[in-house]
Structure prediction request, 455 residues.
Amino acid sequence: MFAVGTAGILAAAGLATLSATSGTAAGATKASGTTESAAAASTLGAAAAEKGRYFGAAVAANHLGESQYASTLNTEFNSVTPENEMKWDAVESSRNSFNFGAADQIVNHAQSRGMKVRGHTLVWHSQLPGWVSGLGTSDLRSAMNNHITTVMQHYKGKIHSWDVVNEAYQDGNSGARRSSPFQDKLGNGFIEEAFRTARAADPNAKLCYNDYNTDGQNAKSNAVYNMVKDFKARGVPIDCVGFQSHFNSNSPVPSDYQQNLQRFADLGVDVQITELDIEGSGTAQADNYRRVVQACLAVSRCTGITVWGVTDKYSWRASGTPLLFDSNYNKKPAYNAVLTALGGTSGGGGEGGTKACTATYSPAERWGDRFNGKVTVTAGSAAISDWTVTVATRSPQRISTTWNGTASWDSSGSVMTMKPSGNGTVAAGASTSFGFTVMANGEWATPTVTSCTAS
Ligand code: G3I
Prediction:
């Protein structure tokens, strides 16, 4: 297959109203594009809300002024977690001197747009100012309680759930507590004390214990489980357990993820997915995200999901591209998988199984003169038996090869129409893909997926 591109085809085709936008030239190896077959696509937050849940993102105050960051956040999410701004080093860097500036900025942003706020975090060994570690036992106790009380009262009524204690257990098989100033000086009772103080400070906030590597059943999650069970038996106030869910190839989504969420829920607490990110790309990443969302939906006490950032651009693991929007704010296949799993109408805009699809571009190999791209086609909430995807390249790019599809071109040569080779059946929420090679001819702009239609 072969086509010659011409300039200005996007504008000429009147495609500005579609959700997909072409990447910048610099984004040629990073960007992806998504398009939908109807303008009235649902959003993550709206789709989650229909399931009685929130869908949030970790947010950094210093990015709120970036228009694409803010508009993606505001459009897609209905809960936020300050990524760093509520941590001890940010709000009380010197004793009893509180600075809520950056955290307030996030809370105000959220409240003025009807978004919920998760509080993160009150007692944690990390991002702890040096003065705290230097305190003696009784001073540390009063500093911890003062910190919890002051911060929670400042935000009283504005935070739906607080991570009261974060990451208090060791990794590995010991099931033991992690060494920290709190553990080492106050002993095992510090967690209970923190939760009791928190309940008194804001009785209406849900109080969570939050940790990582507790996402499946293992020694660490068993230790947390036993603590929660003990708290419930003794009436220590705890309402929820947060499962951070930072996944990659070394720490994949556990096979018993849903069962693990369920066993905690069965103790009488809510469960929340609090810091979700999954390194990877394309279909594999999308499949993992889908599993996580499906697990949460299958557990009635799983009240919401927060992804740990809006865009790969600012992820704490940016090189692992673990989030739902790429660094150019394009929706990734993982986004489509999440929206579809939430029951969103990503492509059809209709109810009750309207035939719909989404198509998402992912970059693949790149050489000195050319690059490969892949487009993942995902069926909406109903199975489809045929699909048509259009992809625009920018002159003087030329598509030299295609695979896993039957391509044709418009008269300009820049817009490729791809149809299935043979059977175009795709099950509801499932995906198929096709690929192509673009001869750059000096132009490295990311191809743009401009439509996906299904029948
Ligand atoms: O803001 C300063 C900047 O002024 C300075 O120039 C720069 C140079 O080091 O540092 C900047 O602060 C960094 C901050 O993120 C904001 O970007 C800190 O060094 C860096 O340590 C901090 O990392 C955060 C990390 O927690 C700290 O442990 C990550 O953003 C944040 O995503 C991460 O979040 C944690 C959760 O709170 C708990 N669970 C694990 C999760 C991932 O590590």
